[in-house]
Design goal:
This protein has 361 residues and is mainly alpha-helical. Helices cover 73% and strands 5% of the residues. α1 packs parallel to α2 and α7 packs parallel to α11. The protein folds into 2 domains: 85 residues, STAS domain (Transcription Regulator spoIIAA), CATH 3.30.750.24; 257 residues, no CATH class. It has 12 helices and 5 strands.
Length: 361
Amino acid sequence: MSVIRIKTPARLDKETGSALFKEVRKRKPGRGQTLVLDFSDTREMDTLGGACLIEIADHLRRRQAEMQLENQCDSVAQLLEVLGPSLRSPAPRPARHPGFFEEIGGKFLDAVGEFRQFLNLCVDAVYWTSIAPLEGRGFRWNLLIDEIHEMGARAVGIVTLMNFLLGIIIAMLSAKQVEAYGVQIFVANLIMIGFARELAAVMTAVVVSARTGAAIAAELATMQVQEEIDALRGMGININQFLIAPKLLALTICMPCLWVLGLLSGILGGFFWGVFALRFQPDVWFNQTLSAAYFNDLLQGFLKVLAFAVAIALIGCHNGLRVTGGSRGVGLMTTRAVVMDIFSIISIDIVFATIFYYILK
């Protein structure tokens, strides 16, 4: 271990202490080295000189070097004894790793706390969306129009295209399976029932979650990182009323409309395959499709898509408001929002399928 030895001046004050600090930095002590300050010539020292010594000690700690003091006279030694705790390097604490049950318990408590925050957000968002406007407490109608255009009108193309292609795929695979039995006309029934109950709602929700849900999370997360949310709260503005309620209402309005377009697009995709690939007459395929349209199936798809809309909007807002860190935090929360959206879509779909299969037969 190398040693760097420096003699301190006869009087250690602000000016001589600064010069001493410059001398220490010039020597560039590093990891494993020891700086020895020889006080044999020092007879006087004031508090500003002591502050310079503390600054030298901090500098050495950052560079992982040690400091030793030698040959202090009585008056200097008394002051150095007072400064001792600030001059000595703190003993490194051993790393503590949480146990298995402690880690599981911590994650459980974090999940409970986040769930409580999500419930509070749901209650506030539903109030400011449905009840507060009826009580005359105001609503941002101009922002609602902008959100409807962004979430609904600009999503029409991708939603209709995805459902149209899915309709072709389902018709193609189904027709191949029933080809041996000569009942390919019933593919029209399958397309109608499948898209009315499941496919149109789920495909539309997945597209909207990847597009709109991610955009909601990224927008609010960026505002949170740039402290715009804190600024709005500082001005006395309710975040749920100002930002979340318009997004929730807009998506609740847009999703059923997109579901209808997705349903028609999926049926059109099956119609395209049935007429041009399977060589059925258009009126025959159309009548067969209409004969499989039941109100119960359409109601099931409509209720699902409403639940999907609420879940996507609230999950996006929840993750956007919980962001920490900078741009990386925004990206992580946006990804997390999309993953949670898709998981919630499947979970809600299972609940509705169970209800309509076992209860509302």
